[in-house]
Predict the structure of ABC transporter ATP-binding protein.
Amino acid sequence: MVPVTVSNVEKRFGNVVALKGVDLEIAPGELFFLLGPSGCGKTTLLRCLAGFYIPERGTIHFGKSDVTRLAPHKRNTGMMFQSYALWPHMTVAENVAFGLEQRHVNRKEKQARVEEALASVRMEKYASRKPNQLSGGQQQRVALARSLVIRPQCLFLDEPLSNLDAKLRMEMRQEIRRVCKEYNLTTIYVTHDQKEALSIADRMAILSEGEILQLGTPAGVYKRPKSAFVADFIGETNFIEGTVVRAGAGNILVKTLIGDLSGVAGDPEDSFTEGQQVTLSIRPECVKLDTYPVEENGFAGKIGESVYYGELAQYEFFSGEDFHLKVFELNPRYLNRVGQEGLYAYVDPDDVVVLSK
Ligand SMILES: Nc1ncnc2c1ncn2[C@@H]1O[C@H](COP(=O)(O)OP(=O)(O)OP(=O)(O)O)[C@@H](O)[C@H]1O
């Protein structure tokens, strides 16, 4: 269990600067996610950590040791990719034992460690099967056991669940978290799946064009995006343009085309001034519907289009001529009011995030 420290890491491919001086401190035993749009540098950073790329600038430390230029096999790290590449001719146990054979671990210890790794992913009963006799999720568990058996000091996961169907993915992500915490592993996980990150991460970093835009806990990043980019990238949101009318510390009043709305700064370090142009970010599930006007942060309108998803409905709530907000209603009750005039919507000031431009 070691901390991972990335200091000012820059990685180039010809003219492309894939990482522009990244700084990152990952705590021992932390389950840390790298998120961002395609091409933002997630895989490049993971590959620098694993030793497949050497950065042009900056350093990487595992604990006190500088591993920036150390070969991958000397880093004592486990790695699991999207294509988990089990050897088809070997049994489950042989696949898991493979890394130990390369490390010349004696037979007795090898057997004990393979059993322990298989038990930790609940696959001990399948030790003598071949990979093609397993489901996708079971193969993924074996791949996880294979990276755990060498007792890595860090675990790197690159889209490990993207080959699985939605239900298995949900099951396996909890499983990965359980195993990482059981082994107290410092784990760095790259994914496109925001739900995967939001549901199991201790903390996460949002990257764009080789830079970290925001770092924080899932709830911290989701509730308080510091920029329109992050607000838009994580989850869904409504943006409303406005002008600051009153700039208080925790409560900023903004004039918008649906009325004055009070909100809070996305970035606590931002300070606002009267007359400043800002963007408000309001998550669709934060807009509440009602049949009576609500004074603070309320506005009148009607429901336009609606889509029913079972547990929730998605509405277009029109306020004014052609402005609408996307609204999610859990356990939908307003479906029978689609098109009806005289409805009201309101949003708690704590859910109105003020972003400077
Ligand atoms: N071997 C390479 N040679 C040249 N350019 C590369 C190479 N690997 C990555 N890049 C470039 O570096 C940038 C970052 O790529 P990277 O693979 O790290 O992105 P990513 O965030 O992992 O994307 P994705 O989500 O699509 O996997 C991209 O512009 C990419 O085209």
